[in-house]
Design goal:
Blueprint (H helix, E strand, L loop, with lengths): L1 E5 L6 E2 L3 H12 L10 H15 L13 H11 L3 E5 H12 L1
Antiparallel strand pairs: 1-2, 1-3
Helix pairs in contact: 1-3, 2-3
Length: 99
């Protein structure tokens, strides 16, 4: 089973779909007091702004696209902010660290 991790955060997300990953990131971001009052669309705008302002790489994301979540996911992967990992590998690392 593949999972996705946001670099710097310990909890992984099951890779059901790119849309699912972005929606799960939103649910986790709502726990942040700075983002708790933002709607899903506002959160997507926030992610796009973060990618555009913190990246030295040009990332083209059309805010009116039907594939907006997929485009954001791909941009985050391209910038190495999201990593796809193998669930078995994570289990092995966790087991070895715990011993």
């Amino acid at each position: 089973m593949k999972k996705v991790i946001l670099v710097g955060f310990p909890n992984s997300i099951k890779l059901k779909s790119k849309n699912y990953v972005i929606r799960t990131l939103y649910e986790r971001a709502k726990k942040n007091p700075f983002l708790s009052n933002h709607s899903y669309d506002e959160y997507l705008d926030f992610l796009i702004n973060q990618v555009e302002s913190l990246s030295s790489t040009k990332v083209d994301i059309d805010r009116n696209s039907d594939t907006l979540e997929r485009d954001i996911y791909n941009a985050l992967r391209k910038l190495n902010w999201l990593k796809v990992i193998n669930g078995l590998f994570v289990g092995i690392i966790t087991t070895n660290v715990g011993v």
